[in-house]
Amino acid sequence: MSAKAISEQTGKELLYKYICTSSAIQNRFKYARVTPDTDWARLTQDHPWLLSEIANAKGILKNFLIEPFVPHKQEEEFYVCIYAAREGDYVLFHHEGGVDVGDVDAKAQKFLVAVDEKLSESDEAYIADLDAKSGASLKLTILNPKGRIWTMVAGGGASVVYSDTICDLGGVNELANYGEYSGAPSEQQTYDYAKTILSLMTREKHPEGKILIIGGSIANFTNVAATFKIQTQLQALVQVGHVW
């Protein structure tokens, strides 16, 4: 099969558009596009981080990608490769990255995503099915099933604010899920959505306990218990011993 090399920028744009689709992740991507017609003064005004200097590399470049530098150690880098074959797309991953990664085929973990195969977790697929059958919006993406911080947020805009705030306050490694429900889902749909989140949250214990943040765009007179339908689900989980 023929292959065509692509630039780092194109590769990252593909990841940004088709894989990192949640707003909470997309909002943290930063890069500056530079062309022969670029106004440098305007570009640095829009992207102040461009004025930072890293080391002292200089020279004439034909193609380059400008990104904010994130200080890190060599052992914190990892390697990811996605390539297409007749049977599907292969994803290679190795915990060692950088220019000296070596023989990737021999060391990396390899995963095949067959043609038309779905990657969704069963719980994500369940919510997606509810969403498809409803006139409302029900979304759920599992980020870290062992995470400590879970959210149940009403409204797409509110879900972005909640997730970004958690990350800004240092909880990015403990954020377990990203999602939202809106558009006036029925009581049963809200119950099923809450039951799924609580079931995921209570599957494993955490030494420091777990946190469920419930919120959204509500008025000061809103009955939270009635609106978010959380009490019934909690009582059901307590009865079967899933809440400690």
Keywords:
244 residues, alpha+beta, D-amino Acid Aminotransferase, Chain A, domain 1, Rossmann fold, 2 domains, 3-stranded antiparallel beta sheet, 7 strands, globular
Overall number of strands: 7
CATH topology of the largest domain: Rossmann fold
Number of helices: 9
Strand order, largest beta sheet: 1-2-3
Distance between the first and last residues' Cα: 54 Å
**Mean pLDDT across every amino acid position:** 77
| Radius of gyration based on Cα positions | 22 Å
Beta-strand percentage range? 15-25%
Question: How would a textbook summarize the main sheet?
Answer: 3 strands, antiparallel
Q: Stretches where pLDDT falls below 50 for ≥5 residues?
A: none
Shape: globular
Organism: Limosa lapponica baueri
Domain ATP-citrate synthase citrate-binding: 122-231
InterPro entries: Citrate-bd (IPR032263), Succ-CoA_synthase_bsu_CS (IPR017866), Succinyl-CoA_synth-like (IPR016102)
Pfam families: Citrate_bind (PF16114)
